[in-house]
Amino acid sequence: MLAHRLRSDLDQSADDHALDLEDSVVLVAGLAPWSIAGAVPLASMGAPVAASMALAIYLYAVPAWRLLSGWFAERGQARCAAR
Questions:
Q1: Which of 75, 72, 71, 67 has its CA nearest to residue 23?
Q2: Is it the case that residue 66 has pLDDT exceeding 60?
């Protein structure tokens, strides 16, 4: 809810807003090994914690990809506007 309030005043589409919330709240919550978002699913499946934390690279990859693709998109728009 706090993330929604912090981002709600930005000029962006509803789809971009939903993706930003997902990347910042849903995915990042599972990165902390002591978090309920990561600990409960691992415990209920009996998954090894060390291997699961190694595979958490995918949780890092999604927000990083969106951040980099947004940065390159803004950079490309700035170049087009300068021409």
A1: 67
A2: yes
Residues 6+ apart with CB under 8 A from 33: 39, 49, 53
pLDDT in tens, 1-43: 556 666 666 666 777 777 777 777 777 777 776 677 777 888 8
pLDDT on residue 73: 83
| C-alpha to C-alpha distance for 66 and 60, rounded to whole angstroms | 11
Phi, then psi, of 41 in degrees rounded to 5: -60, -40
Measured CA angle at 3 (ends 2, 4), to 5 deg: 90
Global pTM reads 0.55
DSSP the chain: -HHHHHHTTS---HHHHHHHHIIIIIIHHTTSTTSHHHHHHHHHHT--HHHHHHTTHHHHHHHHHHHHHHHHHHHHHHHHHH-
